[in-house]
Automatic annotation (TrEMBL):
Belongs to the protein kinase superfamily. ADCK protein kinase family. Coiled coil: none annotated. This is AarF/ABC1/UbiB kinase family protein. Keywords: Kinase, Transferase.
Length: 135
């Protein structure tokens, strides 16, 4: 890679490619009522990364700390991926725990709160009480 001394966000090729990806109705926020104007592109990028799953969330989180690559409106939107993670459903959490523990959740925990205590891009925390007296 050749270092031109300018941010990648100044690259016409990169800008055109990103705009064409964001203009794709399959990836855009149009289904959620987001307008197609340029000011909505940072929001559309954040939503697309959020919809694409954990790997893309991590890419967005990393990019949110790179002012040398992206302009401020994009950085603001991508920071939201770090600060306000969308939790996944309690049913999904319970299924994953059943699979990981190799037995039903109610055999392991006396109580399990469906509402997460905290959420991040690849995990979340639920309060629970062990079924045994052990801690």
């Amino acid at each position: 890679m050749i270092n031109t001394g300018r941010p990648l966000s100044d690259s016409p090729f990169l800008q055109d490619r990103c705009l064409s990806i964001l203009a794709d109705p399959a990836l855009s926020g149009r289904r959620r009522g987001v307008s197609a104007d340029a000011s909505a592109l940072p929001l559309r990028l954040r939503r697309a990364l959020d919809d694409l799953g954990a790997t893309f969330l991590k890419v967005g989180q990393a990019l949110s700390m790179r002012p040398d690559l992206l302009p401020e409106p994009y950085l603001r939107q991508l920071r939201d991926l770090r600060e306000h993670a969308r939790p996944f459903s309690a049913q999904e959490a319970k299924r994953e725990l059943d699979r990981a523990l190799r037995r039903p959740l109610d055999e392991v925990f006396r109580t399990f709160e469906s509402e997460p205590f905290a959420a991040a891009s690849i995990a979340q925390v639920h309060r629970a009480t062990c079924a045994t007296d052990r801690t």
